[in-house]
Amino acid sequence: MSSDSDKNHSPLILSRRTLLRGVGGLAGILAFKQAPVFAQATPQKMILAHINPVPESGSVSMDWFAKALTERSKGEIAAEFQGGTLMTKEIEIVNAVKSGNIAMGSPVGAAATLFPEMGAFIVSYLISSYNQAYSILNGKVGDRLDKIFQEKYGVKVIYFYDYGFRHFWLNKRAIEQPKDLRGIKIRVQPSKVFADCVNGLGGVAVPLPWGEVITAAQQGVIDGADLPVVNMVPLKAYEVSKHYSMTYHNYGATMVCMNLGIWKALRPEQQKLILDTGREAQGVVRKITEEVDNLEAAKKILIPLGMTVNAPDLEPFKALAKQKVWPQYQKQYGALWDEIVASS
């Protein structure tokens, strides 16, 4: 790379002033990530952040993603996973991604709080199966959400994933029917849709970030909360609960997103590598989540840890959700709601 002023000098005789000017120019180019290929010997570092460490399911997929991306980029990208160490709150991670302080991160269970459009997937019993959710999020709806998030929030969706279907874990009693939730204080994500779902089913929603949940359960501030089977052990909820009732009342859709500016600065082949590897990481988390989301697997995991596990009849819960929760969200989400219903 040469400037017009360089043409006035012999290629072998450069003044000190010209040399310094050339070095300063190269530094400026590197700062804006516009260096020629020969100058990009140092791998581009990318931090991937999550509020929880491995073996939490979303962390497992992001850790795998970071390692695979580093290996497959052949030295161009140095992806590093940080779980539960860099930042401990979902909003901190998403804000860091938006600002470009880190390359990628996940809103984890707070997706609907930080990206309100994701709330449609959380409405109780609107999503009825994994196959339904996957076809929506990996299809035209997912593509449209990605475009919206780029325009509104400055982030690119790398892959959608989920925490499976949520079930209640409690100290006081098992949940066999909706009336068993009356007066029970249930921790929910700090999002209106989570609170409306628990309140609509008869419980008392207590919004709390995850970092405060175990302590709140120990102190009696809450009677329990909800988690998918896959994260009951990694998040140690079994230590503060006695009963696990498989109510399937929420589908926990979320995503891994990337700073849009960092994304756009990548070459097309690098973007393709990230998306292709991300789709594989999506498969990693979906597999480990689905494999244990059934009564037999839940019993095998939780009964040895001192918990009871039951699977109540879901029809009364679904009927109550349709009556108490669905009407307000059907109007709010409009066309997206209709697409989800049509896919069931």
Q: Any overview of this molecule?
A:
The protein has helices at residues 16-31, 57-72, 90-99, 111-114, 130-137, 140-153, 192-200, 213-218, 260-264, 268-291, 295-302, 315-324, 326-333, 335-343, and strands spanning 44-50, 77-83, 104-105, 155-170, 185-188, 204-207, 224-227, 243-259, 308-310. It is an alpha/beta fold. The protein has one domain (41-343): D-Maltodextrin-Binding Protein, domain 2 (3-Layer(aba) Sandwich). Helix 2 links the parallel strand 1 (44-50) and strand 2. Helix 2 runs antiparallel to helix 10 and helix 13 crosses helix 14. It is globular, with a radius of gyration of 24 Å.
**How many independent structural domains?**
1
SS content category: alpha/beta
Instruction: Name the CATH class.
Output: Alpha Beta
User: Looking at CATH, which topology would you report?
Assistant: D-Maltodextrin-Binding Protein, domain 2
Largest sheet, strands/sense/barrel: 7 strands, mixed
Helix percentage: 40-55%
Q: How many strand segments?
A: 9
Topology as H/E string?
HEHEHEHHHEEHEHEEHHHEHHH
Low-confidence stretches are 1-39
Radius of gyration: 24 Å
Mean pLDDT, all residues: 89
Number of H/I helices: 14
CATH superfamily: Bacterial extracellular solute-binding protein, family 7
Looking at the structure, what is the overall shape?
A: globular
The CATH architecture can be given as 3-Layer(aba) Sandwich
Proportion of residues in extended strands: 15-25%
Termini distance?
57 Å
